[in-house]
Amino acid sequence: MPIKPILQRILHNGGGLRLIRWQNGSRNRILTYHNFHSVGTEDFEKQCEHFRHDYNPVSLDEVAAFVRHGKALPRNSVAVTVDDGYRDFYLYAYPVLKRYSIPATVFLMTDFLDCRAWPWWDQLRYAFFHTPLNSVSLRIAEGRQMPHRLLDPASREMAFEETVEALKSVPNSDRLAFIADLPEAFQVNMPADPPPGLEPMTWDEVREMALNGISFGPHTKSHPILASLESEEQLREEIEGSKLRVQEELGRAPAHFCYPNGRRVDIDERVRSAVERAGFLTALSTESGWNEAGSDPYLLKRLSMKPSLSTFFFRQQLAGFRVK
Ligand SMILES: [Zn+2]
Known about the structure:
Elements: H1 3-13, H2 16-23, E1 28-33, H3 41-54, E2 56-57, H4 60-69, E3 77-84, H5 87-99, E4 104-108, H6 110-113, H7 120-130, E5 135-139, E6 145-149, H8 153-167, H9 172-180, H10 182-186, H11 203-210, E7 214-218, H12 232-250, E8 256-258, H13 269-277, E9 282-288, E10 300-304, H14 311-319
Parallel strand pairs: 1-3, 1-10, 2-3, 3-4, 4-7, 8-9, 9-10
Antiparallel strand pairs: 5-6
Helix pairs in contact: 2-14, 3-5, 7-8
The chain binds zinc ion (ZN).
């Protein structure tokens, strides 16, 4: 028998994970989810069972009081968050969370819910998978020409991933120009609405969930990398404009903000202070790690999760094994 499964079994069954969880018990974990699928509902249910059984689910308001004022959290606290606002959350995850009485916060890209735009990475993926071309040569911003052969789904996926990463490091106007040029560059008709399975939740669904344990916060209007925005006005529009949309639809000001993409390089001092000025209690990044009393409330860390993670990996991550 290979060594890895043996070690995993010792870790999981021999009390090793319990020990790691105990050592990290006074820290807070915030989890990030994005998408849910009907086939993964059972997996997500098992994860929720684990939160209920071995952890203490808490809301972001409680996390805010802990990091800002040192107000104690229950040991092994875990807060669930979900980014972007896809409708699959409403269909597949919300009923499970409700059944287990687990609070969660969903961060909404408000232009997506307002049906003004679908996420730019989904548009890009659509172009790579629907183009009749067998190859494309793309130039991003001032960069060099990047040739991609699109022979099969695997090569299209790889080309998509390379391009989406490259687009995260250019000025916002260059990214917008690139996305606007997709029909021309890929010879593809881009539908006005997102394809099936990638739709946003509706504001009525948001209001229904808000009455049943789910909180909502803004995740900007159009999901730009905030540090790549050229003007203060754009920055304010994305942060305060999305806050206002959530407030208009729910009747109260949201307390928590979530940075798009959320790596440390995507959040410069200008961005961080604009979020603080907008009056939020906390703002969440995608930097991996835990939060403690006294952590910067505008740079909260999270752990990335998916319903499809293996039980071993999911439980290890959550307990704190291998987390920075
Ligand atoms: Zn996002």
